[in-house]
Fold this sequence. Notes:
Layout: H1 3-9, H2 13-16, H3 24-30, E1 39-45, E2 52-58, E3 61-65, E4 67-69, H4 82-87, E5 93-95, H5 97-102, H6 106-111, H7 115-119, E6 125-127, H8 131-136, E7 139-143, E8 148-151, E9 158-161, H9 163-173, E10 177-179, H10 191-215, E11 221-223, E12 225-226, H11 232-242, E13 250-252, H12 261-272, E14 281-283, H13 289-297, E15 302-304, H14 307-313, E16 316-319, E17 322-325, H15 345-349, H16 352-360, H17 364-391, H18 394-405
Parallel strand pairs: 4-15, 5-6, 6-10, 10-11, 12-13, 13-14, 14-15
Antiparallel strand pairs: 1-2, 2-3, 7-8, 8-9, 16-17
This protein binds zinc ion.
Residues 338-339, 342, 344, 346-347, 373, 376 line the site of zinc ion (ZN).
Amino acid sequence: MSSDALCRSAMPLFAAxxxxxxxxxxxxxxxxMNNNYFSFELQKVDPETGARAGVFHTPHGDIxxxxxxxxxxxxxxxxxxxxxxxxxxxxxxxxxxxxxxxRPGDGLIARAGGLHKFMNWDRPxxxxxxxxxxxxxxxLNNITDDGVRFSSHVDGSYxxxxxxxxxxxxxxLGSDIIMAFDQCSEYGYTHEQAKKAMERTSAxxxxxxxxxxxxxxxxxxxxxxIQGNLFADLRLxxxxxxxxxxxxxxxxxxxxxxxxxxxxxxxxxxxKDKMPRDVPRYLMGVGSPDCLIEGTLRGVDMFDCVLAARxxxxxxxxxxxxxxxxxxxxxxxxxxxxxxxxxCYCCRHYxxxxxxxxxNVGEMTGAxxxxxxxxxxxxxxxxxxxxxxxxGYVRDYVKEFYEKQxxxx
Length: 409
Ligand SMILES: [Zn+2]
């Protein structure tokens, strides 16, 4: 008997559900009454804005939407343990296919029992397809209709990603939500360039879908990605081309890549009323507090972004009163919490003066506490949005948010 099987046989049934490869008992537990691994309950749509509140049922638990997903690029949310992510209300995390393929390798993670078990996270995981990193991080060698040849940002070695390869890796990782392999177009692309990338993305989606069907892995939900840059006609065409392949969710990619925010909002407005209603809609790579709010107001249900943890490592906190740069001298003897409205471990136990000291002397505790707080802040922001949608006062909630950020409240 393998150590994994030994371990599982010794565990109570509910604990066995933590494994990424579900047992028969787990499957029974996590399927809904219609025998599906995934389903989305749309609980309320705000009639004025189109903001939505829902519940996304997945094999590793329910996700209340709208939701912010912390990013665990290298199979860890930097500086925050899974235990603490649960305490601050993280419902699902995102991890990166490209990085995990490079190191430690998706085969190794499969042999470890899948990503959930490898990183000790038993709630849902979404993985991207690697497309964004291949196009933004690696040295591109050649893009053809077949796939992308590139050299690794780690050691310069050559690799070839195809839609089938992206599915293969994500299958090995065992994530709950997997993303189609897409060609990201950059801010500044011409209509012709963006159209070519969108059409290629569409052709690749069909191949992703076929490869995914071939795995017979209904415990993984494949999300198509809408591309089309900042061109309304291309976005709408991309959406229509995605629709035949939408089963459990759909994503909007290629935004928040350097364009002014109003242009991003414009694209969301174009798509809003044409998107499928009965599945979650995921806006990729978007996660500043104002963008989370504006995206939600445009009918988006899921978001991810590295911003919260990245600015934390630079000593900046996101708070209900705007950004706080704790390194600032005015906090030297400030013995008040970072955010008096926050209930996180950092705000309950530490002062700005202590955090400033940690950041100034380069202690990792500073970045850890700030990361914990920043992620908790975004979870509270989204929970508040959700409550206000359900309660019918989302406009008031948003107004109060902006007034506080600007110091008027
Ligand atoms: Zn806090």
